[in-house]
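Protein entry
_____________
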Amino acid sequence: MKLFVSLAFLVGTPRLILSQKVDDGSWVYVMDGAPASGPPPSSGWHSSSDCTEDFAIDEYPNAPIPDNSPSCGNAPGTPVVDQIVIGEHGLIEDIDVRVEFDHTWIGDLQITVTHVDTGTSLVLWDQRCGSNSPLVDYDITFDDEGPITFCSDVNLGGVAPSNSGSGPLNVFNGENMYGTWELTVTDWCGADIGTLIGWELMIEHECTCPGGCINPCTPENIYHHEFYHPSCNGDHKFLQCSAFGQCYEQPCAYGTRWCQAYKTCIHDDKYKGDIRCPSDDCGSCLELGPPGSCEVDSCLHTVCSLDSYCCNVYWDGYCVDEAIAYCANGYPQLCTASPDALQAAASLPQSVREP
């Protein structure tokens, strides 16, 4: 369980601290843009709350809840299932679920919410109360902070699903809210009927980057110098973190796209969608050979446009160094090379060129 704390120095001082207690119990943080470790300072800073945003979405199917007549308790009736699709991103900090329905015997019902994309599911209401509830029309907010007793005042102040169902809603915390959510209402006993009128998801989530992507600029990532990340808005953009935790969405140059494996934009025609991203191995471009012996066209053209000797006289050590700089390590990257290959190429002798 990661505990995130944001600490900012008072106005007029140049410092900003982002701290995080990581899984092994240690602390990492950033002060004045520089990574540090150990517990954050005990004084001299002003605490500010984490950045969160509220999101709500509802659906009103007005769907009949099929009765389970004539059986009771042995097998469920045909459930009514309704979906809500969330098209925005955000890591869930807290979630409440409001369900509006009518039914003549609430003790017949089981109500379940499921995040289809992650497979996480929770029973909100599990055949509770029965005749102890004097109501027929229900508008229940399931909330982890809801009251413990609920049958007589189920519509007042919310209901904690840890009391009415299978556990707390915090099982969804930390998930990306994006995707399909399902509400399932099942009648387990006959004779009484009802209708699912509507339901609503109310989510508090971490602030997102410009463009709506989940913010990857966590203190731990900054501490480990992980400043570049893929964008949720396609591979022609990427996310860049500042040393202080701000997030920016940046475009790749025209004709290039983001490759996370190398944390750079590469030419479209070199992108194959796999973890290595560029499709060509630098290979012959990192070896001595006759003029123009580099077999990666984009690298060959790049090097020769800078150094015609490589295509007219000999592919020498200077050409190999240029292939390393502009192809293997270039921006955008034109071909791939292992660390061993780069080390071997860098040690090749450079020829004495004729003036």
Remarks:
- The longest strand covers residues 194-206.
- The two ends are 65 Å apart (CA to CA).
- The helical segments are 161-164, 219-223, 297-306, 309-312, 317-328, 339-346.
- Residues 1-28, 40-50 have pLDDT under 50 and may be disordered.
